[in-house]
Amino acid sequence: MGYIRLKTEIPGPKSRALQERRAQAVSRALAQATPVAVARAHGALVEDVDGNLLVDLAGGIGALGVGHTPEGVVEALKAQAERLIHMCAIVANYEPYVALAEALNALFPGPGPAKTLLANGGAEAVENAVKLARAYTGRSAVMVFEGAYHGRTNLTMAMTSKYALFKKGFGPFAPEVYRLPVPNLYRTPRGMTPEEYLDWSLWNLENALIAHVDGSALAAIVIEPVLGEGGFIPVPHAFLRKLREIADRTGALLVADEVQSGSGRTGRMWAIEHSGVVPDLIVAAKSLGAGMPISAVVGRAEVLDAPHVGGVGSTYGGNPLAAVAALEALKILQSPGFMDRARAIEAKVREVFEPLREEVPALGDVRGLGAMMALEFVKDPGTKEPWPEFVLELVRRNAERGVITIRAGLYSNALRFLPPLDIPLDMLEEALQVVADNVREVYARLA
């Protein structure tokens, strides 16, 4: 018997009842990818309120690299809740905040002393990284890239790509943000080889320092080493090296937004480590907290110390409960062989779906790194016209058959997989085969 066990249709009657309550009580603007109402979860298995067991390949949008309710995290939360739930690091000091900062400082890949600032979520940490860069450099301009997602605050919306979903109706946005293309080799322009496209992209970075913003005004270059919402696109290492070169030459800071790609997701603690490039600052969140709300800016000590005393702060940032959860998550991630499992997950995804490209031409690309994989669907493999309707239908069918998935991509035409790193491979294969069967069925119906 497999892991997926369905007692009712999805959504079942209790899920539908809770969905109706949500519709009456919660802002309509808050989207929901699947109609599942969850009662409990452990590892990669989710039990809904109707008693159905589903495999979770969404992982809280990448927040559960160590899985749902890992034992060490649960026990640490219980013990901490009996001692101290909240204090605020602005008011007084406490061990979990300092211990987590020390642990993250030790994981920073750069030379010299490092320091950390804790916050609640990815957007808050990205905004803090920009503030730190501006304070350190005395400059204001920020360079970002197409397909990026950095958050939903006013500044991070300005930095985020994909206007219609994340930004429409919410402007005006913060100024001094300059957006450039990032090479998506699957969408290499016609008439160019991937190598020529990458060469043009490197040239365009230099051109941007004349056409968009002078290097002397540049405070920070902020990039996701693997684009998250943009479609799980690994940024070519040559592009990351060029950004490091420009940062060194201009005095700007290179900031790696590792909110989704970090904390072991790609098989290294930070995805940028695969390239050998050392950033000045790293932004971490999501899987760092094992499901608890915490984020961090980690980097060069002199940058973290640049603002005036009192210039940064957060009421709940580094909350004791969230901090001990993050400490336990880091222990799990660094346990022998744990992050290595990301490679096995990538291999399994490729094993199931790369052969399917011949059978289903709509499956245009299988890509990603480690336990951060995506499938991109197109109406025509020649023109690569995006097919977002395909993915909407696929997400719906996956949920009906016991697999929780979500979309991604600048065109909303990619399906992403973000399982916990320790998902049993037979469980992963069962879930992926469900998705593969649904791909075939959706293609047969829509093609």
From TrEMBL:
Its EC number is 2.6.1.19. Its cofactor is pyridoxal 5'-phosphate. It is an enzyme of class 2 (transferase). The keyword tRNA-binding does not apply. The keyword rRNA-binding does not apply. Keywords: Aminotransferase, Pyridoxal phosphate, Transferase. Pfam families: Aminotran_3. GO terms for molecular function: 4-aminobutyrate:2-oxoglutarate transaminase activity; identical protein binding; pyridoxal phosphate binding. InterPro entries: Aminotrans_3 (IPR005814), Class-III_PLP-dep_AT (IPR050103), PyrdxlP-dep_Trfase (IPR015424), PyrdxlP-dep_Trfase_major (IPR015421), PyrdxlP-dep_Trfase_small (IPR015422). Gene3D superfamilies: Aspartate Aminotransferase, domain 1 (3.90.1150.10), Type I PLP-dependent aspartate aminotransferase-like (Major domain) (3.40.640.10). Belongs to the class-III pyridoxal-phosphate-dependent aminotransferase family. This is 4-aminobutyrate aminotransferase. It comes from Thermus filiformis.
